[in-house]
Amino acid sequence: MDDGQAVEIFKALSNQTRVRILQMLREPAVYFSPQIHITKEDGFDGGVCVSDIRSKTGISQSTTSQYLSILQQSGLVEMKRIGQWTYYRRNEETIKQFERYIGSHL
User: Fold this and answer.
1) Per the confidence metrics, is the pTM higher than 0.85?
2) Following DSSP, what letter does each residue of 58-104 receive, concatenated?
3) Contacts of 67 (CB under 8 A, 6+ apart)
4) Which residue ranges in the chain fall short of pLDDT 50?
């Protein structure tokens, strides 16, 4: 991870609601109801529908989408469309890289 990528992640984490979304996505089974439209064949375990994320955060649909887009652009979450639904989950590899970056650069 380079400094530019790290800065984008720091920007994404500069909002309490975005941090909360990442915290909830860490344990989706604890915070969200089962995602009935995802099957094993979809290969997106841990994905949570945007509408469920919106319900838990209590913010508007447009703001939820904007926040998820920022998290995706920074690499902290991954997105997949399944049918008419859009699902997000944490990108654990990027989070591990960011953790190593902080440990070695700050």
Assistant:
1) yes
2) T--HHHHHHHHHHHHHHTSEEEEEETTEEEEEE-HHHHHHHHHHHHH
3) 15, 17, 18, 21, 57, 59
4) none
